[in-house]
Amino acid sequence: MLDISTDNAAVAERLKKAIADLPYSKSEVADRLGVSPQAVTGWESTGRIGKKSLAGLALMSGRSVHYFLTGEQEPPQGDWGAILGRLPGNLAVIREESSTMLPRLNPGDSALYDPEDRIPEDGRLFVVVAAGLGNESPTVKRCVELGGDTFFDALNPASDPAWSKPRKMEDSHHPITILGRVRWIGSWEG
Hints:
By secondary structure, this protein is α+β, with helices and mostly antiparallel strands. The chain has two domains: 8-85, lambda repressor-like DNA-binding domains (434 Repressor (Amino-terminal Domain), Orthogonal Bundle); 92-186, Umud Fragment, subunit A, CATH 2.10.109.10. Helices cover 29% and strands 22% of the residues. The chain contains six helices and seven strands, in the order ααααααβββββββ. The longest helix has 14 residues, at 8-21. It is elongated, with a radius of gyration of 18 Å.
């Protein structure tokens, strides 16, 4: 845990304001960051937040890590906050639970995706929802353009019968909705 003991109350207030300014409920913020709603409430009251959660909240809110820690708007050059500040502020987080995208994504990996970038592009990874396949949870799939049509596929199709072959985006029985383009993938090494 990142504990800013010098002024946790001020950090807590900045966290609380940033969360309140998001267009998501506290529960949705928790879900997007892969934590419980109680954890979010704890951040707001104590000012204590894990590094991974702080980085994710910075990306979601368009604020820098430096801002949350210091209250200063502009981070110093070379600071991690400056790096985060160059990324779009509207990124969302998904945790991939399946093995359909091995070897690119392992079960438990997280991906940041841009909900405003929904234009299919051949070879790119997207967070999608496929209606009527039994599990309508968002998942990461690769976009494939074939003969003027757009398909999505799994890199490891043997792991899920629903994705054993590429699925057409405009399928009348199982349409695919793009939630956003994947911009970054990360995993925790144990």
